[in-house]
Amino acid sequence: MAVVHQSCVGYGAEPFASLVADYPGDDVYPSGDFRTEWGPIFHRGRLDGSARVLVLGQDPATHEAISRRILVGEAGQRVQGLLAKVGVDTAYVMVNVYLYSVFGQAAGSRHAKDAHIADYRHRWLDALLVGTGVTAVVALGDLAATAYRMWAKTQPDVAATLHLAAIRHPTYAEGFARASGKPLAETTAALLTNWNEHLGDLAAHVTPEGPTDLTPYAASWGPTDLAPIPEIDLPAGAPAWWRDVDAWATRTGADTQTKRATISVVVPKGARTWPAL
Amino acid sequence: MAVVHQSCVGYGAEPFASLVADYPGDDVYPSGDFRTEWGPIFHRGRLDGSARVLVLGQDPATHEAISRRILVGEAGQRVQGLLAKVGVDTAYVMVNVYLYSVFGQAAGSRHAKDAHIADYRHRWLDALLVGTGVTAVVALGDLAATAYRMWAKTQPDVAATLHLAAIRHPTYAEGFARASGKPLAETTAALLTNWNEHLGDLAAHVTPEGPTDLTPYAASWGPTDLAPIPEIDLPAGAPAWWRDVDAWATRTGADTQTKRATISVVVPKGARTWPAL
């Protein structure tokens, strides 16, 4: 019992208690375009005012529907690595453009300007950016940049004090390679070039918690470019492999209907610590 | 956005913050006998002092590994129905004998008296029973009754003020029918007879929150004998079907190794609210 575990305390304190009490449902997020059946997934990171960076992601993916915190999969670990470069290990908070996972390629763009979706998102951004210690916002991809700019118009004085790093989404390389037929190596290099372009400015606008390492990314992911998700970001008792880079949740099913209904959770091989069966 | 959701605030307040920080791992719970790889699952219900009944269950099952709260499956809904009969809708708290799911039939009994497992469990029972408003303990099955009596010896003065309803486990009927070859109808009738024997005494030792209904159970489960899990018992954003009586989590896999590693989460048919695919 020498191990002392950390965990996310969740949403008991205001304004978060109120925010998680009246989240929009499928009247605002149409269930044809969003996987509302898996419930909203709100955030990851510090809600106690200690965040220095806000990361704005897009929408929760498969792993997040189980862990109930956003950006815990590979995309999240890439972002975690970027934050580590600017000396931020836990002093961040992350929210998404959408509370629910987008269903279908086009749905994400289709609702980029929905007023009711924005209203609720703005309440979170107000809570996290107005009168807080956050000095920089990292927007992951175009939808996040658009969402941030919509909010910035509602709070121009606050936004004027914040640095925006509107970078490519951490899984841009995979998505663009699939869509364009270009080699993944090429799209990965483009992603990392983009991140390198923003690294210095981001570092200049964040007070680091720990050592920084502004060595640019190479043309492909290096062994230390991904950083693990800290234990303190997940709810109490969450298995350690929920924070691993090894994938552990997949949508499975022989047809579209079953696949939408199913998430298969599989303990990664490296975490199968039990005696041989 | 007219819907106001309730949710469990979790473990931010003491003594629970400390309890979830230093839970025992597989040095105390051997991974041959417990599914430690899914993490500990601590409780369900009120941690704010408003509980009037403590339910002591056995170990978390499949659904609980995902919802991260105990007794949410069919067993939990049967208990919820029992509590409703004595007028308790949300004023309860539930913990298990074991933090981790038992692996294999015999493992549960084998560790019934383990000192280190009991030490940690006693800290929870102290937190929930010493100087609180709980007046009755419902122990589900023999392991729970044994665990309660072990604790009672450490706190005899407090235990003397508490009513113990040591009832059969809510899934006793299914387990005993499988093990003995007796018809399920017969073992179900035996379970419900046992619960009926304890109903009056339990009601006499609990101040109800709402109306009571001490009509005895019939020989089989009636339509109102199971009660849904209240929304306030699950973490913020949890899908409503996580509280349904329809099963939604199963261990799948062609061999024992894969089956131990896998939980398949499937939205029940009644909760597939999306447009036809």
From TrEMBL, chains A, B:
Source species: Terrabacter tumescens
Domain Uracil-DNA glycosylase-like: residue ranges: 48-173
Protein name: Uracil-DNA glycosylase
